[in-house]
Amino acid sequence: IRKYLYVQIMVELKTQMPLAILITRSPGGDAKKFKPVAKKVMKLGKAIKYVTLDKGYDDEKVHEFIREVLMAESIIPARNEDVPIWRTSGRYRKMMKRRYSKKRYHQRSKNETVNSVVKRKWSDSTLALNWRNQNKEVIFRLIFYAARRFISLFLILHAEYVFC
To answer: CA-CA distance, 46 to 41, in Å (whole number)?
Structure first.
């Protein structure tokens, strides 16, 4: 039996810096894995305005958590777009069916960019055989990415300051 790592990363879209990570080995719905990652971000004390997720997270419990606990706006398109609004369950899911900001939703591609860069730079497979070392390897890859991103942002800001 092959076992895979499922990595959930919450990214700040403005700077494309990873904020929290959850590594699991069991397949399952994305909606069930959202809450632990979001709680890690809450511990950071970071103010969150918008949470942009893909269709896999379309669950009323996720919407409620984002709106009522995180006090943020959830932008999650409906999984089944063909189902009429009156047959959709949940207050927040009906709101998403009626209208959501497509401009803000397309910011989600920045999250996918972080995943893509990490996989291209440092591979998508782990060399470690032990599960603890596999977790460490994935976390170190994200630390390397964050350090690389921080340096590039710092150099961009420093260059703007020097040339102004």
So the answer is: 7
